[in-house]
Amino acid sequence: MNEHPTSSFSSKFGLIMAAAGSAVGLGNIWKFPYIAGENGGGAFLIIYLICVILFGLPMVLTEFLIGKRSGKSVYGAFNELKENNHWHWLGWLCMMSAFLIMGFYFLVTGWCFNYLVEAIGNVFHGLDSEALAAHFTEVSGNKLRMIGFGLIPVVLTAVVLWFDVNKGIERLSKILMPLLLLMMILMAIRVLMLDGSNAGVQFFFNVDFTKVTPKVILEAMGQCFFSLSIGMGALITYGAYMPKNQSATYTSIQVISLDTIVALLAGVIIFPAVFAFGFNPAEGPQLVFVVLPAVFEQMSFAWLSSVLFFILLCIAALTSTISLMEVAVAFITEASKGRLNRQHSVLITSAIVIVLIVVCTVIPQSFDVFDKLTACIMLPIGALGMSLFVGWSLPAKNGKGVLRADKGARYWFGKVYIFMLRWLVPVAILLVLLNSLGIFK
Fold first, then answer.
1. Is position 81 within any domain?
2. Which tens digits make up the pLDDT trace of 344-390?
3. Would you tell me which of 15, 23, 323, 434 could form a disulfide with 259, CB atoms 3.0–4.6 Å apart?
4. Distance of CA 194 to the CA centre of its chain
């Protein structure tokens, strides 16, 4: 296979931290807790963990293997593994998905930075939940302010990607991911010391199978794919940078384990705090920006708790913006066939993202359109295409051989992996797709 046009990760640890950072993001800390809260807590958690093992692991491994075996970005990976095929549309779909997601994801990341600045300035002091809800509406409706804060993560991400992979993404990931985990553990310990926090722990971990409905199962499947960033090509891109002696199988297990740990820690931080002060755990997307600031205001060391939480949120968001933008940067660099270097591609990608941020801000409906289009249609189709490409389209020497050639993979695991990729995973993705489109009521 051909080498990727840019440098590779210099260490196994660096790749694991970067790939885990790609999966870990606002989906874990912002979305996972409120989705769990809306679907019964512990019952949802058990189904989610099963989905991660049955569907998440095969798809994370699939993306890593496509990247590692091809040595290409999503632009050339599918043609490299199987010449003269019609699967190159998957690469274009991944890039388009990444761009559309960046349009609203960078905007939400801008909200996080806005709230971090306000937390540092002690803006939330003395505000109750109603006042904080009004504040959130005011802040998110201030277009110039939101565009300005949305530019902060664009600039920070562009600076990281300006350098080669090992000097930019890898170096920062080795700092941000351990820092994120340390901060989450410290915050979890702090929250668990609150009076009344046991109710939140019981809600999150107590399993009541009477609450398991088809809707809960489908929501858990969807959250699994969303949380692990499956279907947008980020892990294909990182897989192309994987050291040759690194096992994609073991790396996949480590990545989903870290991603799940972060999601569990987010629940341990949020639910005990919410229950300790009598708030509703099923508050929806405003749980992070309205309910938690109100919770922190009632805690001792309120200012410090609020600041640390929003620092944590910004770090988690940045680890994902880096991988999202890298998909486009690698695609543009490779598609230019040497006419553009990494720095040129970073500038082009940043300019497009800024335009999309402005569009999502000025035309609020586009935010929801981009979100629904990617989460409900494009990402499921991308994941489905990848599973069918490796499971069915590749000839035996490249299909099963893609895994068999991977260091650390066992023969029995390869047979199970291909079976799941051919049958179970496509069915699960189709169900998620149909549920997202509102087919199941």
1. yes
2. 999 999 999 999 999 999 999 999 999 889 988 999 999 999 999 99
3. 23
4. 30
Which among 382, 410, 429, 415 is positioned nearest to 77, based on CA atoms?
382
Q: What is residue 5's three-state secondary structure?
A: coil
Summarised one tens digit per residue, pLDDT across range 159-215 is 999 999 999 999 999 999 999 999 999 999 988 998 899 999 998 998 888 888 898
Q: With the C-alpha atoms ordered 217, 223, 224, 230, is the resulting torsion angle positive or negative?
A: positive
Q: How far is Cα of residue 317 from the mean position of the Cα atoms in its chain?
A: 8
The H or E element containing residue 64 is helix 57-70
CA dihedral 336, 342, 347, 352 (to 10 degrees): 50
Domain that holds residue 363: 12-436
Task: Please answer whether residues 328 and 189 qualify as being in contact, where contact means their C-beta atoms are separated by less than 8 angstroms.
Answer: no
Residue 441 placed within a domain? no
Domain count, the chain: 1
What's the pTM value of the predicted model, to 2 decimals? Answer: 0.93
Q: What is the Cα–Cα distance from 408 to 405, expressed in whole angstroms?
A: 9
The CATH number of residue 318's host domain is 1.20.1740
256 located within any domain: yes
177/322 Cα distance (integer angstroms)? 13
Four-CA torsion 175, 178, 183, 185, nearest 10 degrees? 180
Answer yes or no: is 3 within a domain. no
Q: Identify the CA nearest to 294 among candidates 128, 126, 116.
A: 128
Compute the distance between CA of residue 142 and CA of residue 427 in angstroms, rounded to an integer.
43
Tokens of 231: 């279907």
What is the C-alpha separation between 115 and 211, in angstroms, rounded? 35
* Rounded-to-integer distance, Cα 262 and Cα 312, Å: 11
